[in-house]
Design brief:
The protein has about 450 residues and is α/β, with parallel strands linked by helices. Helices cover about 30% and strands about 15% of the residues.
Length: about 450
């Protein structure tokens, strides 16, 4: 490597950019980390620190036989900073890994800034030198100015969808005469507050929800709603029982007052260890703030709710990855450019972290003139990269981790849990092999 190749630019200090920076810093690179906060914020961001979580505070299941649980375990083996911090600042959430979002961002920021080879540049990037080694990790809320520049590189191969943030209520404002604490099927450590509704209460809530006023979206011409984070009012309009089979599913939640499952049930999940604020699970929404307060207070347990945060709708931006990236998250037309995070076409927090880690490790290999690391579709990390780079470009949509994209056991195993355990064992062994053969230090 020449002197200049020891410098890598990382644009964006979200989950992917923070992870990519950490991996490069460990390898001895000088990292120029560009982050426009706190000088300017996107419509959904408000925290000055790195790795801000703008939607849920949950990183999903920790069960290694689940897709996201396996992905996190792979990342732990690879010394992921973001997962390490998440484990450190976790809050009770049953079998899920949920974090105290403030401590999470603070700890990641503190760790990265402890490296003397990190240079933080707080300014909005509107263009950059395509000849310099660069990881683009600006996320689903990439600024309009940078989007316009990226379009000149990627030839307008952009798609758009919407994401939505769920409201948060205070613990003290929840009416526990109409709520009970339990995990579904009593699996877990009773970390969820459940707000049951009978048929009459549900129908009143449903009818008001589907007729409530939404925010007028001005800047979005292609209103594609992404299934994984669909606004609750949009889901409700699919049918009167759509919510009862979705976020208000009552199955596995026995109401102690009746000894039966309720007709419908809203779940609340804690945001911090202090038991002071709770997230309305699955209640991403684009209703006006006034309508959110009016309609959500029709839920009996929330009739006196104090809202610390209302739901907010925002744009998600992602590239048409199959036309632009290879399986290393490397731009085909500009090999010294890599794209990480949700901008690359992966969907989800942990998936974004994984993409940032892969970009950093392969940027190192690229600059050293070595073979890039193929994580293969035997691992969840590799399966995601392979999917987004080889899917049909005509109908490409972002992909989150799921067992269906893995390849693995050739055995025909009928029991799903046993099958997933086998796939997980194979994936984790492959990660060990990759570390041994490709990565000197983890």
């Amino acid at each position: 490597m020449d002197k200049n190749s020891k410098i890598v630019n990382v644009i964006g200090a979200g989950l992917a950019g923070s992870e990519a920076s950490y991996q490069l810093l460990k390898l001895g690179y000088k990292v120029n980390l560009y982050e426009m906060k706190p000088k300017s914020f996107s419509p959904a961001h408000k925290n000055k620190n790195f790795a801000e979580l703008v939607c849920s505070n949950s990183l999903k299941s920790n069960d290694v036989t689940s897709a996201c649980g396996l992905l996190k375990e792979e990342l732990r083996k690879l010394d992921s900073l973001v997962i390490k911090v998440a484990d450190k600042v976790k809050v009770p959430a049953g079998s899920a890994l949920a974090v105290d979002r403030e401590k999470f961002s603070e700890e990641i920021t503190k760790t990265l800034k402890s490296f003397s080879n990190l240079n933080v540049i707080n300014e909005e990037v509107t263009s950059f030198d395509l000849n310099l080694p660069t990881i683009i990790a600006t996320g689903p809320l990439t600024s309009n100015n940078l989007v316009e520049f990226l379009k000149t590189i990627f030839k307008d191969n952009y798609l758009y969808f919407f994401d939505a943030i769920a409201p948060i209520v205070t613990y003290n404002s929840i009416d526990f005469n109409n709520a009970f604490i339990a995990d579904r099927y009593d699996k877990g450590t009773k970390d969820y507050i459940n707000c049951p509704l009978n048929k009459q209460e549900y129908e009143l809530f449903y009818n008001e929800l589907i007729s409530a006023e939404s925010v007028k979206l001005k800047d979005f011409e292609n209103s594609k709603v992404f299934e994984g984070c669909m606004p609750v009012e949009v889901l409700a309009k699919r049918g009167v029982d759509a919510l009862r089979f979705g976020p208000l599913k009552p199955v596995g939640l026995t109401d102690p007052k009746t000894g039966r499952y309720p007709y419908a049930c809203v779940q609340l999940r804690r945001e911090t260890n202090n038991l002071d604020m709770f997230n309305m699970v699955g209640f991403q929404t684009n209703l006006t703030f006034k309508e959110q307060e009016r309609v959500f207070k029709l839920i009996p347990a929330l009739k006196n709710a104090e809202f610390l945060r209302f739901g907010v709708m925002h744009r998600n931006t992602f590239i048409n990855a199959p036309t632009i990236l290879n399986k290393y998250y490397q731009v085909k037309s500009n090999p010294n450019l890599f794209v990480a995070g949700q901008l690359s076409g992966v969907e989800g927090y942990v998936e974004s972290i994984a993409s940032g880690l892969v970009c950093a490790l392969n940027m190192d290999k690229f600059l050293k003139g070595q073979n890039l690391i193929d994580f293969t579709s035997y691992t969840m990390i590799g399966a995601l990269a392979n999917y987004i780079s080889s899917a049909s470009p005509k109908h490409f949509q972002p992909m989150g981790s799921n067992m269906g994209i893995l390849i693995g056991s050739t055995e025909r195993i009928k029991d799903k849990k046993e099958k997933y355990k086998k796939l997980s064992d194979i994936a984790l062994q492959k990660i060990d092999d990759i570390i041994k053969n490709n990565i000197k230090e983890v």
